[in-house]
Specification:
By secondary structure, the protein is of the alpha/beta class. It has helices spanning 28-42, 61-70, 95-105, 120-128, 134-138, and strands spanning 2-8, 53-58, 77-83, 111-116, 146-151, 163-168. Helix content is 29%, strand content 22%. It is globular, with a radius of gyration of 15 Å.
Length: 171
């Protein structure tokens, strides 16, 4: 069995006047959330059991930093791709856009990891989930939150319904 883990970036600082949204880095609280995610990723009974993964990470500063602090150098990730397509600050990105980018890097031999932004990651989880997590139906995707789906072992990721098998929401 393969898996798809969808992570929203951890808490970022508010943009300074004149600073682009793309360049925002993590807040102190966001760095603490990444420590919790990293512990879960390194735990063979936690997220670690769903790896190794091929990662697709938004190229924005806060998602790159979330990836680096939470996942880089762990056994959970075998390969990482950074993408300006899944967030570029110039246009809205849909769940289907992310799926297209994921399919382009999916080797169909590893599980997958996406580190992205809301509302796109929320739309992605709601689009793929057979049964939607109640917190996402009634509210926003939690910062640093992760949801794990079970994928078919022999098929590329695509627009389908998948079973949600785990989740993690850091403090």
């Amino acid at each position: 069995m393969r898996y798809l883990t969808v992570v929203r970036h951890a808490k970022a600082v508010k943009p300074e006047p004149g600073q682009s949204d793309y360049g925002r880095v993590l807040h102190k609280r966001g760095r603490a959330q990444c420590e919790q995610l990293r512990s879960w990723a390194e735990d063979r009974e936690g997220l670690g059991r769903f790896g190794p993964t091929t990662a697709l990470v938004s190229a924005a500063a806060r998602t790159r930093e979330t990836y680096e602090r939470a996942f880089e150098g762990t056994g959970f990730v075998s390969t990482c791709h950074f993408s300006e397509l899944i967030y570029n600050g110039r246009r809205d990105v849909t769940a289907e856009d992310v799926l297209i980018d994921l399919a382009a890097v999916d080797p169909v031999t590893t599980s997958l990891l996406v580190v992205g932004h809301n509302p796109t990651v929320q739309e992605l989880v709601l689009t793929l989930a057979r049964s939607a997590p109640p917190v996402l139906v009634t509210g926003n995707y939690p910062l640093g939150g992760a949801y794990v789906f079970e994928l078919a072992e022999d098929r590329q990721i695509g627009l389908a319904r998948y079973e949600l098998v785990a989740s993690f929401i850091p403090d």
